[in-house]
Amino acid sequence: MPAAAPPSPAVQRAVRAPSGGGAVRRSALLAAATAAVALAALLSLALGSRSLAPGEVWQALIGQGEGAAAKVVRELRVPRTVIGLMVGAALGMAGAVMQGLTRNPIAEPGLLGVSQGASVGVVLAIAFAGAHSLDAYVWYALAGAALAGVGVYAVASRGRGGASPVKLALSGAAVNALLASVTAGVLTTRATTLEQFRFWQIGSLSGRDASIAADIWPFLLGGTLLVIAAARGLDALALGDDVARGLGQNVALVRVTGGLGAVVLAGAAVAAAGPIAFVGLTVPHLARGLVGGGHRWLLPMSALLGAVMLLVADVVARLVFPPSEVPSGVMTALIGVPFLVVLVRRSGVRS
Amino acid sequence: MSGTALRETAPRERRPAVGAAGYAVARGRGASFLLHRRSALVAAVLTAALLGACLASLCLGTSAVSPGAALRAAFGLDSSAEFVVGTLRLPRMTLGLLVGAALGVAGALIQSVARNPLASPDIIGVTHGAAALTVGAMTYGAVSTAVLPYWSVAGGLAAAGLVYVFAWRGGLHAARFVLIGIGFAIALRSVTQLFLTKGDYQVAQQATVWMTGSLNGRGNAEAEPLAIGLLLLLPAVVWAARAQRSVVLDDDTATALGIRLARTRLGLATVGVLLAALATGAAGPVDFVALLAPQIARRLTGTAQIPLVCSALTGAFITVLADVAARTLFSPTELPVGVVTAAVGAPYLLWLIVANRTGGRA
After folding, report:
1. Are B358 and A170 inside 8 Å of each other by CB?
2. What is the helix (H) or strand (E) element at residue A338, kind and residue range?
3. Do residues A66 and A203 make contact, with C-beta atoms less than 8 angstroms apart?
4. What's the N-to-C CA distance of chain A in angstroms?
């Protein structure tokens, strides 16, 4: 018998989700979520320490606007919004896949050490490999993310009971602490790295320029294709390894494809915007509540909601303390922790 | 009421690991005497090791001092090494001793209340709460080191209180407690980061070093308030040492004996949180000492109950030794001591998980 943990309540609920007749409703929900993304993007373009009217934004977008407003939109807010869209969508999908793969409601790039692994990759690249731009350190970020994620999961699934939520969270916390101490060691001994790293580290969309979007989209595309390829297998996996095998799925292949996809998505997102916690935790649960647990619906919904959550968090972060800004990573953490508390109290964890 | 608390985490402790099965089974006077002797022996050995680490801390560094000269300088008999030993290293060593001892006892108390090695103050968000408020105080003006300990204590207590309140649901399930603690730790860390980006560069540099837990450049200014705080807490710790015995009992036995477990637990945990927050205020979060020290001490003494004195000695030993390593490993660059303790402690935690000493369930 493989050491597969029984499906968690969340996943069981997901599997029981309505199957037939829901396609219209789900399509409508997806359309609504798309509209929400458009609205969030518009807000992100219009609001900030200097707020603009929708008309001005539109003028600037189609290239007719003149002066400072158009400049703000084109040079600052468009890149920021595009990166927010990409990173939010990537984190949402990565979280959904990780929860599906581990059959664990609290799986998330941040808690599982994947983001911290990518961070360490970036710090080491900045400090020792002389990398200063994203296209140079994205590979290090991916390698770090993969190593940390696999390590955490390997440790957690050893021993009695398989990879239970507590063991997963604890090994994530231990690996996070270990990696954070590596980061801190590098940063305290190399002051020049600190200044460059300080703003990147916290997870912020501000001050990221358009070239970042150009650099990461191939990675996000690749990761998305991988997780889409694994979607059907993830549905089967939710029923347990044995059933999945019985349904003719190659379980190992699904794990590798999905895991690689999630790591690429999370790693590239972290490389672009720094570690942004809890988007990957919160969004898939909300999406599952809307469209059910089938991954062919869950993945696009998670991507859309992830983009909405990150953009809204970023806009709120911009507006809370003008003119200085709260990094969006802080906002998502502050939104996400109450969510985690509710999740844990309600159903997430039971012996 | 009090009987239901923590029932789900009923003791899964192993019997005392004295090796021979006979010791564990015998509960007569002879056995308890034997255990005591072993504890005393362990305490003596730990004290000797601690003295050795202290001597190393006085001697080693960018300029090495011979042990004899270091001792003479420490007692003011020799003026040649006066500056290096007396001014730089002795206060720093003292601070390391106090911080380590406080963390060791704090971990021992909290772990014995939760009956789970993982419920140490750095995992459940206590040190992160202390750090968040302290860095906030640094950023928003209160730079005088005299004020920082108050902020740390307030932050630690607030974090512990929040985690307790949110994890309480007709009892304290250890798994829920740990998960919510980890969540709060992450949120508090990002609050700390927020304060860091708000401050100017110098504050950020200072706070970053503070946050990793460093003894570098610290000494009597931090050791004095810590020592005063520890002295004030001493009666509470003595009470805790006695009260701790009842916590090992299972709920039904304790209730039958008329011991108010819930209150005792709350008292013990409060003393533990206060100690951890005080230590954090003095040296920043020195991670994993509170997790490691009680576990090592208990393994050494082989008692069912986590020994307080030996935990204090082990904590002090680990911290002083880690500080020596932090300043000699990459000499002349110094690492913060917290980096060294985390590099040792995190793998230990991973090993605990793999070896399934985590209470196993949930």
Report:
1. yes
2. helix A328-343
3. no
4. 21
- Mean pLDDT (chain A, rounded): 80
B185, B208, B354: residue with CB nearest A194? B208
Return the HEC string of B54-117: HHHHHHCCCCCCCHHHHHHHHCCCCCCCHHHHHHHHHHHHHHHHHHHHHHHHHHHHHHHHHCCC
Q: With b meaning 16 or more CB within 10 Å and e meaning fewer, what string describes B163-196?
A: bbebbeeeebbbbbbbbbbbbbbbbbbbbbbbbb
Q: How far apart are CA A106 and CA A342, in angstroms?
A: 12
The CA distance from B280 to B151, in Å, is 10
Residue of A128, A200, A337, A339 to mutate, testing the B interface (most B Cβ within 10 Å of its Cβ): A337
- Give CA–CA dist A48/A203, Å, rounded: 18
Q: Which CATH number fits domain A82-348: 3.40.710.10, 1.10.287.130, 3.40.50.300, 1.10.3470.10?
A: 1.10.3470.10
Nearest to B101 by CA among B357, B283, B305: B283
**How confident is residue B4, by pLDDT bands cut at 50, 70 and 90?**
very low
Question: pTM for the full model?
Answer: 0.77
**Residue B183 contacts A where some CB pair is shorter than 8 Å:** yes
Residues 6+ apart with CB under 8 A from B193: A201, A202, A327, A329, A330
Q: Is B123 left (phi over 0), alpha (psi -120 to 50) or beta?
A: alpha
Cα(B361)–Cα(B124) distance, rounded to whole angstroms? 18
Site of tokens 């459940």 = B124
pLDDT tens-digit map of B150-165 = 888 899 999 998 888 8
- Residue B312's nearest CA partner among B99, B16, B53, B110 is B99
**Which residue ranges make up each domain of chain B?**
7-15+35-354
- Give the three-class secondary structure for A73: helix
What's the average model confidence in pLDDT over A244-269? 87
Q: Does B356 touch chain A (CB under 8 A)?
A: yes
Kindly determine whether residue A180 and residue B342, on different chains, have CB atoms separated by under 8 Å: yes
User: Which residues are paired to B168 by β-bridges?
Assistant: B172
Instruction: Indicate if the pLDDT at residue B104 is higher than 60.
Output: yes
Contact call for residues B279 and B226 (beta carbons, < 8 A) = yes
CB neighbourhood size of B333 (10 A): 12
CB A4 within 8 A of CB A237: no
Whole-angstrom CA distances from B137 to A317, B144, B203 are 21, 10, 11
Helix axis angle, B174-198 to A191-201, nearest 10°: 120
Specify the CATH architecture of the domain B7-15+35-354.
Orthogonal Bundle (1.10)
pLDDT at residue A270 in the model: 85
Interchain contact B175–A (C-beta under 8 A):
yes
- The CB-side HSE value for A186 (13 A sphere, CA atoms) comes to 22
